[in-house]
Amino acid sequence: MKYAYQTDKGMKRQSNQDACVAFCPDAHACFAIVCDGMGGSNAGDVASLMAVNTVYERVKAAWRTDMTAQSVQNLLLTSITAANICVYDASAANKELFGMGTTVVAAVVIEKTLVIAHAGDSRAYVFDGALHAVTRDHSVVQELVDSGMITAAQAGKHPEKNFITRALGVEEHIEIDFFDMQLQGTEKILLCSDGLTNFVSEAEICEILDKSDVQDAPQRLIDRANANGGGDNITAVIISE
Questions:
Q1: Global pTM?
Q2: Which of 56, 88, 144, 166 could, after both became Cys, cross-link 149 (CB 3.0–4.6 A)?
Q3: Rg of the Cα atoms in the chain
Q4: H/E segment holding residue 152
């Protein structure tokens, strides 16, 4: 398994409220997570880093080499739930952190099975020559698109496009969406924050993933986002066999 990740504050923001990590717990599996924090002052930084660290440590500690897709989903559920409690409690206990939260998208590839856990508008894609979205944003704009009130093209310029409807740490309990699918073994898995997808088109993402190896792709995606304006923090993680 191969992986690479990179995060950048972009061209307009003073700090980076994204956080990410990836690692291979054994020779046949890989884990990755991206969180995009929100909140005043440095609270977004705290939320995203707290979530990434909590999930990473729990996955690392509980990993077994004989895990099935269902046991991986259970592990992600308990790990993300624990992270939600950590962020929620820290927000409640410190007025400077009050109201902080973070998106979360996590992936585990085990053998040729992909398991995704997701809340918010950070995304997971599978690239096999074409780009396939695995997750669906939990956002006001996505709800408007789903209801037919606006088109996907209009969504990109909608004034409420950054309003998310689900996030880690905002409430005492979190609802997590899960997806699993079988892979051929030649795909590239992309996890990213909206700082990438808001500034790099799917066609540009496809071009970069097609022409880049795993190690170079995250930085090339970030460079393209910055060249296109870089108006937000940008994070990209790639996993491939």
A1: 0.94
A2: 144
A3: 17
A4: helix 152-155
Are 133 and 206 in contact by the 8 Å Cβ rule? The answer is no
Beta bridge partners of 3: 239
How far is Cα 9 from Cα 130, in angstroms, rounded to an integer? 28
d(CA 93, CA 110): 38
Distance of CA 179 to the CA centre of its chain: 14
* CA proximity to 7, closest of 231, 192, 199, 210: 192
**What domains lie within the chain, and their CATH numbers?**
2-240 (3.60.40.10)
Residue 197: name the closest of 146, 137, 151, 239 by CA: 137
CA distance 4 to 209: 12
